[in-house]
Amino acid sequence: MMRKSRVERESNIILALDVIDDNVERMVTRCLDILEEVAPFICGLKLNRQVLLPLGLTRTRETILKRARELNLPSIMDCKVNDVGHTNVEIARRYFESGFDAITASPFVGWLDGLSPVFELARRDGRGVVLVVYMSHRGADEGYGQTVVDEKTGKHLKQFEVFAQRAVDWSADGAVVAANSPDKIRMVKSILGSAVPIYSPGVGVQGGDALTALRHGADYLIVGRSIFGSTNPREAARGMLRSLNPPAS
């Protein structure tokens, strides 16, 4: 679904609508206003728990997700499921039934009695699972960048390299790799090839450069504060899209 939206809208920007506001009504209004303004320039929507927890799943479904569907924008719930299988699948089921087209998941939990039931549910319901391979915060290397011994090959690899291979082996619908770590994008791309698309957060505020990320192998850019935190979200989104597709001279 994301690929179809990308082609139709000629955009590979996904809006991370991580708005924070203690006033729930104001939060809903602001989220809907921003979504409306930037919809022509994005190909999808990502929500995190900053929005979902204060609104609740029902309110989120009836407001933000409803409008995203009306705008033909696929949505991702960035929940990073990372528990035992029966818990993971129940979490995934709730999000899918609420209208999310995909969820993120952490490969740390493993396959058997971990993520296997989530993938089974997603395949049955025509939804997606995007694996978190390398995050965008400064401490990401402490976990995702540590050197480990691959149990299958005995080779010493970086943890994110193992996770990238799992994304291929498990036929994931995407892999999250930070835009502010272009070297990691390049290394992950060499493992994924064309089998699994790369979703890159961390553009703008966290230091990631959009064009650099794309040149190193990113397929989608996940952009949050640089757009919704702007005084003019519409122009911020339009400007970013133009910078990715400059007019021919």
How would you portray this structure in words?
With 249 residues, this protein is of the alpha/beta class. The chain has one domain: Alpha-Beta Barrel (TIM Barrel), CATH 3.20.20. It contains 11 helices and 10 strands. The chain has helices at 2-9, 24-38, 49-55, 57-70, 85-97, 111-125, 159-169, 182-192, 210-215, 225-228, 233-244; strands at residues 13-16, 44-47, 75-81, 102-105, 128-134, 147-149, 156-158, 174-177, 198-200, 220-223. The strands form 2 sheets. The protein has an 8-stranded parallel beta barrel with strand order 1-2-3-4-5-8-9-10, surrounded by 7 helices. Strand 3, helix 5 (85-97) and strand 4 form a beta-alpha-beta unit. Helix 7 runs parallel beside helix 8. The protein is globular and about 55 Å long.
Topology:
Elements: H1 2-9, E1 13-16, H2 24-38, E2 44-47, H3 49-55, H4 57-70, E3 75-81, H5 85-97, E4 102-105, H6 111-125, E5 128-134, E6 147-149, E7 156-158, H7 159-169, E8 174-177, H8 182-192, E9 198-200, H9 210-215, E10 220-223, H10 225-228, H11 233-244
Parallel strand pairs: 1-2, 1-10, 2-3, 3-4, 4-5, 5-8, 8-9, 9-10
Antiparallel strand pairs: 6-7
Helix pairs in contact: 2-4, 3-4, 5-6, 7-8
